[in-house]
TrEMBL record:
The keyword Hydrolase applies. Keywords: Exonuclease, Hydrolase, Ligase, Nuclease. PANTHER family: BLL1145 PROTEIN, CLEAVAGE AND POLYADENYLATION SPECIFICITY FACTOR FAMILY MEMBER. Gene3D superfamilies: Ribonuclease Z/Hydroxyacylglutathione hydrolase-like. Its EC number is 3.1.-.-. NCBIfam families: Xnuc_lig_assoc. This is Ligase-associated DNA damage response exonuclease. The keyword Cell inner membrane does not apply.
Length: 330
């Protein structure tokens, strides 16, 4: 069986005919396998959703208990029609997974979803899965993207807090994954006191704590007076009246895109923190070298740069040009 008969793009998303399922579909389908809980990958309305237990919990928190007709936890290898599928940690956010597809006849395909190779205190580390075809993201698929050590970025935050002790530091971070990672990194960097969080982060932070992730003392940033010097909020909050309660704040944003200075200026960011939950250029190219697949398929991101690299490395590659994927929507 040819690879494109095992997995190919459709308007709904990546479809596997021998298994009769879709991976991270952007429209409601009868059976969806979900890599992780971000809204551009995990959507409500499917007939059956198969995902890790944590991803299913996160989808229920975000969309309500009836987000799908049926839920199925991905425990161990599972038979789905003429395929065997398995889920493996992706290192992106809590519950994130790569999906391995082994048809009864044909090459083994691993769909990475979003993934990261740097240590992340709020989720399991990426697990390399040998495969014939590796489907990789290319969010930061250009050589210019070489992200620094996250703890190095957090040292810039602590230095700013020491330099401006009377100014609250408001850090924008996506509600799922990035916010909790920033909090955990702040603890590793020695910030032991209460951290204030926007109300939109409360339920997801509570879930991480219930899963055994120590985020330290958190206080709500919804009262009229917030005494904590460090405040974490979703980026959308910075365009709302909520931000006006803080006097002379230091505005920060934690994202891999903060390496692009124009983006930081456009957002009015005084303290850009280059902290990414995606692979940068060295990570994605080293991952391909490590797995040594016979072919690489490239999804959302800068496909041309990685295509050219694969060509120079003698690795067969092609773009999938999937639509509907972007930064985590707020």
């Amino acid at each position: 069986m040819r690879a494109d008969q095992i997995l190919h793009p459709t308007p709904e998303g990546l479809y596997c005919p021998p298994g009769d399922f879709y991976i991270d579909p952007v429209r409601p389908v009868h059976r969806a396998l979900i890599t992780h809980g971000h809204g551009d990958h995990a959507r409500a309305g499917h007939g059956v959703v198969l995902a890790t237990a944590q991803t299913l919990d996160i989808m229920a928190i975000r969309y309500g208990q009836d987000f799908a007709g049926q839920r199925q936890v991905a425990n161990g290898p599972l038979r789905i029609h003429d395929t065997t599928v398995s889920f493996h940690p992706a290192g992106h956010i809590l519950g994130s997974a790569q999906i391995a597809i082994q048809p009864d006849k044909g090459p083994k395909i691993v769909v990475s979803g979003d993934y990261c190779r740097r240590p992340n205190p709020v989720c399991a580390p990426f697990e390399p899965v040998p495969c014939d075809i590796f489907v990789t993201e290319a969010t930061f698929g250009l050589p210019v993207f070489c992200h620094p050590d996250p703890l190095q970025e957090m040292s810039r935050l602590t230095a700013s807090m020491a330099e401006f002790p009377d100014r609250p530091h408001l850090i924008g971070a996506y509600a799922l994954g990035k916010a909790q990672r920033v909090i955990a990194l702040a603890r590793q960097a020695g910030i032991d006191g209460p951290i204030a969080i926007h109300g939109a982060l409360q339920n997801l932070c509570d879930y991480h704590i219930a899963q055994g992730i120590d985020l330290g003392p958190l206080v709500p940033a919804t009262a009229d007076t917030v005494t904590a010097q460090l405040v974490i909020a979703p980026p959308s909050a910075f365009a709302s009246p909520w931000v006006q309660r803080f006097r002379d704040p230091v505005i920060g944003f934690a994202s891999g895109w903060m390496q692009v200075r124009a983006r930081a200026r456009q957002r009015g960011v005084e303290l850009p923190l280059i902290i990414s939950d995606h692979v940068d250029w060295p990570q994605v190219t080293n991952t391909i070298r490590e797995l040594s697949p016979s072919e690489v398929w490239i999804t959302h991101g800068t496909e041309d740069g990685l295509m050219r690299w694969c060509e120079l490395e003698g690795v067969a590659a092609r773009p999938l040009r999937l639509v509907g994927y972007e930064d985590e929507p707020e």
